[in-house]
Model the fold of this input.
Amino acid sequence: MFPQIFISPKNNNKKRQCFLLFSIILLSFIIALNIYATIAHSHKKAQAINTDKARAEKMLAIQKAAKGFFTHMRFADTLLDMKELSFKDIQGKDYKLSDFTGKPMLINLWAIWCAPCRTEMPELAQLKRELGGENFDVIAINIDKTASPEKIQKFLQDVHANNLLYYRDETMDIFNNVRKQGLALGLPITFLIDKNGHLIASFNGAAPWANDDAKALIRAVIKEAL
Done:
């Protein structure tokens, strides 16, 4: 015969109590975790709503600052990321717009064969002289396919715009990309970009970027810290 093992009722009760206590603790932990996740999600959603609302208010303030000629600018109605637009400098070094984020920018696409560009380039150069610096910049990107770097630089000198640094995309990919997005009709095309690389507004054609209305618009962008 095998020896019988006697289990005390007290031991049984203790085991049941321990199991019940463990189950209660586990269930409480799961409930608490679900509550935390729900609160965190709600908080994140509220933050996103507040961020969107704040941006919308800033965009409205900038639109109100667009006077005269610049009332014709096309302001972005959705958040459009422009940081992946790519181009090169005079040494052939590759850049993306993301390399220049941290301050608002005016990005201009132009070519030496473009007659309106010849009129506009001195305006952009003057705007850069007056407002360019740590809070704002003007970046002009040439998209000529065959012109030599020397010819492009001479063009900038001839129109008194040699303070605009040499950037280029001879593949025209940068222009074709924005055209596919419905932003560009021809040259010149100018984009007002916020400090995070998102589109604020675009303008097709030459514009008087050195006049008081243009400077008031740029100052509004700087003030709103977009």
